[in-house]
């Protein structure tokens, strides 16, 4: 009888452990940005599975992408869905346009697909100085109309409005966080937006980029960009700042305090570090920065002026090889994961968890397009051939200081030819550069360093298991475990009582 009781107790504890896994899935609470500007994107189902496997339970989309939204249905992931800047004028001038947008991109996905939409992000960094005021007058009216549309749809309490802004909307004349205030040219717009968001329960969303601060200024103290840096601290009265993230965030807090919004909730909409495209954008720096960032998130660490940790949306989840490179070649390399969901570098996610790569990814055949052994860089068509390839494919890794920036002329041509060949799905005519190229089955990636000649995703062979079915199967498993656990607990109690 004692052995029988012990066996029941062991089974009971095992079931309890399984149930605890069900109940704590995604509890870590990471948040990320999911950009979709890729020539060979992962299927939305694979991306959602990637997020769930790595503890991301919040995601920000830059637009209402139908595939992404459908895949997020009943996934347990909270969604912030964005509205691009080029839509602001129409939404600002016509409330019916806002109603139509909310109906199509919020109400429908909530009711029909079970998407857990929590925020609508109106515009993206619309007050950037580089836009020269293009969106300044449209942003606030667009926010008002989207809010009205959410109320009309009966979603005013469930879905909140926000607008992601860049940190350049505030400044400090003293150079210290305590001197923070909003830019004079947009002061009135900022106050109106903040008042309106506060009245309707919406947060402020700000993007903070220590990488951009360092990359733009050769005199920026590098160590101050990292959370474990050894740069001289910045002393601001009774507060000491050891990293630029805290100093930047608290500059915003000071600006809010000066204008009567000391308790305004703040979301960090984007923060991260790229891995390629410039000398500072590399694996070593990205791993160092993001590990410090994830450690803060796990510890729920705030800043000196806001000790309560904000929601932080890591930028980004995966690389995007078709994204605009106007800010710099590094723009296509912000992902914690490579374009195919493979791991770039290890990260400790807390609780003994590490990054998990995407599952079910299928690739094109292992073949590459390279410069022919018989070809010569002095060929008259050499430069034009490289230019053609890089016009239609991503050659940002060839940028000075980037991962493939030190290749010789033949290596540059091979890299460019291959990126074009892969982007064009390895079509036979895609490795035809005026007799300069040839197909090889030998990987041409240099044996040393981080330069990699890619093989693209085979878009026709993706494993396409529904995330909904994945979520449903998990719910089914947990429900079964609970039933078994309940039965075993009843039996165990009766045996002990006997």
From TrEMBL:
What are this entry's molecular-function GO terms?
glucan endo-1,3-beta-D-glucosidase activity
A Pfam short name = X8
EC number(s) on record? Answer: 3.2.1.39
List UniProt keywords, sorted A-Z.
Answer: Cell membrane, Disulfide bond, Glycoprotein, Glycosidase, GPI-anchor, Hydrolase, Lipoprotein, Membrane, Plant defense, Signal, Transmembrane, Transmembrane helix
Spans through the membrane: 479-497
* Entry-linked PANTHER family: GLUCAN ENDO-1,3-BETA-GLUCOSIDASE BG1-RELATED-RELATED
Name-wise, this protein is: glucan endo-1,3-beta-D-glucosidase
To which species is this protein native? Arachis hypogaea
């Amino acid at each position: 009888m004692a052995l029988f009781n012990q066996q029941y107790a062991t089974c009971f504890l095992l079931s309890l452990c399984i149930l605890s896994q069900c109940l704590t899935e995604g509890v870590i609470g990471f948040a990320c940005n999911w950009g979709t500007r890729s020539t060979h994107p992962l299927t939305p189902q694979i991306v959602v599975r990637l997020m769930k496997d790595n503890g991301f339970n919040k995601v920000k989309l830059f637009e209402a992408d139908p595939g992404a939204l459908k895949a997020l249905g009943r996934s347990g992931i909270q969604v912030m869905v964005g509205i691009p800047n080029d839509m602001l004028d129409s939404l600002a001038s016509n409330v019916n346009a806002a109603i139509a947008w909310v109906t199509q991109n919020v109400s429908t996905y909530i009711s029909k697909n079970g998407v857990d939409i929590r925020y609508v992000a109106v515009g993206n960094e619309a007050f950037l100085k580089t836009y020269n005021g293009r969106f300044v007058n449209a942003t606030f009216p667009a926010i008002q109309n989207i809010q009205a549309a959410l109320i009309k749809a009966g979603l005013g309490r469930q879905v909140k409005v926000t607008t992601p802004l860049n940190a350049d909307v505030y400044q400090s004349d003293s150079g210290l966080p305590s001197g923070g205030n909003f830019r004079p040219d947009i002061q009135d717009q900022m106050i109106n937006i903040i008042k309106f968001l506060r009245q309707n329960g919406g947060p402020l969303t700000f993007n903070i980029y220590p990488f951009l601060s360092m990359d733009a200024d050769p005199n920026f103290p590098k160590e101050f960009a990292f959370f474990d840096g050894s740069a001289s601290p910045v002393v601001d009265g009774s507060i000491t700042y050891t990293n630029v993230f805290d100093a930047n965030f608290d500059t915003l807090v000071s600006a809010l305090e000066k204008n009567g919004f000391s308790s305004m909730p703040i979301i960090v909409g984007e923060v991260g570090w790229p891995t390629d495209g410039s000398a500072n954008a590399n694996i070593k720096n990205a791993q160092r920065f993001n590990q410090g960032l994830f450690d803060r998130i796990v510890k729920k660490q705030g800043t000196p002026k806001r000790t309560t940790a904000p929601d932080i949306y890591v930028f980004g989840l995966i690389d995007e090889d078709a994204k605009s490179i106007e800010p710099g070649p590094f723009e296509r390399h912000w992902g914690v994961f490579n374009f195919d969901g493979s791991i770039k570098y290890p990260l400790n996610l807390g609780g003994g968890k590490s990054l998990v790569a995407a599952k079910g990814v299928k690739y094109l055949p292992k073949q590459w397009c390279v410069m022919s052994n018989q070809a010569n860089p002095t060929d008259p068509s050499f430069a034009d051939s490289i230019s053609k390839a890089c016009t239609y494919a991503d050659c940002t890794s060839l940028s000075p200081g980037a991962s493939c920036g030190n290749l010789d002329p033949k290596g540059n041509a091979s890299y460019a030819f291959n990126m074009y060949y892969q982007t064009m799905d390895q079509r036979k005519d895609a490795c035809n550069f005026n007799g300069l190229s040839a197909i090889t089955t030998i990987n041409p990636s240099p044996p040393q360093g981080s330069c990699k000649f890619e093989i693209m995703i085979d878009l026709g062979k993706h494993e396409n298991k529904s995330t909904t079915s994945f979520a449903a199967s998990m719910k089914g498993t947990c429900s079964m475990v609970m039933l078994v656990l309940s039965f075993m607990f009843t039996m165990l109690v009766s045996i002990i009582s006997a």
